[in-house]
Amino acid sequence: MDAADYDKLTPEQREERDKATKAREAEEQAALPYTWTQLLGELDIVVPVPKGTRARDLVVTIQKKKLKVALKGKEPIMEGELCKDIKVDESTWNIQDNELVLIHLEKSNKEQWWENVLTHHPKIDTTKIEPPNSQLSDLDGETRGMVEKMMFDNQQKQMGKPTSDELKKMEALKKFQAAHPELDFSNAKIT
Same structural domain for residues 161 and 117? Predict the structure, then answer.
């Protein structure tokens, strides 16, 4: 279903569809051999490993567009192409309690949500991401407004709808046209 079809649904139908999509996504994500969370600028992955595992027992490779986590001499727990580019020098990993590999990835593009970690894994609907309010509320008013605008614009772009700036231009043009009905805008090219 594309954005136009979704917009035609009633609020109840949207809620029902969103619930079904969220349940499917949760099931798909639960089947992965890791869990992950993200903010606009970073992504954190938790990979369970057998209790007693030490860093020297692991092979962890973090590259600009690839990630691999494996126990030495075994099939990789996860391996593949990352959804988007990362900043390798700012990305890290460590082992916690000898049973969890914690991976922190710094996104190259800090204004974009990831649909998945590895390209061959199930995707999530990034238009439905609700960032933690506590983090937004920690920002000063101007910065918070800018972040909220970026999130709105990113969501609008992903749905093929106009951004806030484009909406403002369209509204200004409508007001101008209403104020000047004598002008013919039928052949005008608006950029």
Answer: no
